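quick q for whoever's on today - can somebody do inverse folding on this one?? i tried earlier but teh output was garbage lol. tokens:
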């Protein structure tokens, strides 16, 4: 296959953000359990993030995905009552609003993130862009059917879309680790097995992106983050260091990370990703 040479005037860097709910980064990084995570950090950058309290998924993801503080997005818990998300567009929507040739994809199994029939959703539905082929929504229900299944389906479909259309800006979300953390705690074989499964998903995502870089000459950011950690006994929501501990790990296939900041706040991720799109 001959490599296509992208037009530098029209091609901007592409971004895939992977959200791993409830990841205890201290139990994942450098343990040999998640070599793709370690490779992203080793070849790229790593920021520690300290999440706002309450360390719950609704407020946490709303902050990371819209670039807003808890006070700004108004998401106080996982019920989303009285939220202001209609005034706080997510980073996929903002990338599209900035340039209406932008293609986006979200793939997630936690319904409030993505399902228009549920609370939220944090990621705007943008039905017109779905109909025009500019926005792809892959929604599953891990709350009802289990995250081991939902995450695997999310990964399969996301990898298929990444390899096929290669959308400009994507968010792909996994919740298996958080689910096992709640039931068994993070220091258990069940949590470790969830990390193994997520590593399998991550490695396929990274491989799909690397192949596009090699075969099409595209410039890609692969970015990983989490919304909170877990207490040693399992559970989160409070203000302990392990619950508030998050991170951003990023690597770039085909470009420099010199502009990446040394310190990052949770609400700073979305503006940073939008800046990365500018080249
Ligand atoms: Zn969460």
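ok took a stab at it. sequence:
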């Amino acid at each position: 296959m001959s490599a296509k040479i992208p037009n530098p005037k029209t091609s901007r860097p592409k971004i895939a953000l992977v959200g791993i709910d409830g990841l205890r980064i201290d139990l994942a990084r450098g343990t040999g359990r998640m070599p793709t995570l370690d490779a992203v950090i080793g070849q790229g950058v790593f920021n520690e993030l300290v999440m706002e309290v309450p360390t719950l998924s609704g407020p946490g993801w709303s902050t990371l995905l819209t670039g807003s503080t808890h006070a700004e997005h108004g998401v106080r818990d996982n019920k989303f009552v009285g939220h202001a998300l209609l005034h706080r567009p997510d980073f996929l929507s903002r990338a599209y609003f900035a340039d209406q040739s932008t293609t986006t994809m979200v793939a997630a199994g936690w319904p409030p993130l993505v399902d228009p029939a549920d609370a939220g959703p944090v990621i705007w539905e943008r039905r017109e862009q779905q109909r025009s082929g500019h926005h792809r929504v892959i929604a599953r229900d891990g709350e009802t059917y289990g995250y081991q299944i939902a995450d695997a389906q999310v990964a399969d479909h996301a990898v298929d879309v990444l390899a096929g259309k290669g959308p400009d800006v994507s968010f792909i979300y996994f919740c298996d680790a958080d689910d096992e953390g709640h039931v068994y705690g993070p220091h258990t074989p069940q949590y470790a097995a969830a990390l193994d499964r997520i590593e399998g998903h991550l490695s396929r995502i990274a491989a799909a992106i690397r192949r596009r870089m090699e075969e099409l000459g595209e410039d890609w950011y692969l970015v990983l983050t989490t919304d909170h950690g877990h207490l040693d006994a399992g559970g989160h929501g409070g203000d302990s260091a392990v619950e508030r501990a998050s991170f951003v790990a990023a690597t770039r296939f085909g470009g420099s990370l010199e502009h990446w900041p040394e310190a990052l706040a949770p609400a700073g991720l979305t503006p940073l990703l939008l800046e990365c799109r500018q080249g």
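fwiw The chain has one domain: 14-276. also Residues 14-276 form a domain with the Alkaline Phosphatase, subunit A fold (CATH 3.40.720.10). so keep that in mind when u check it
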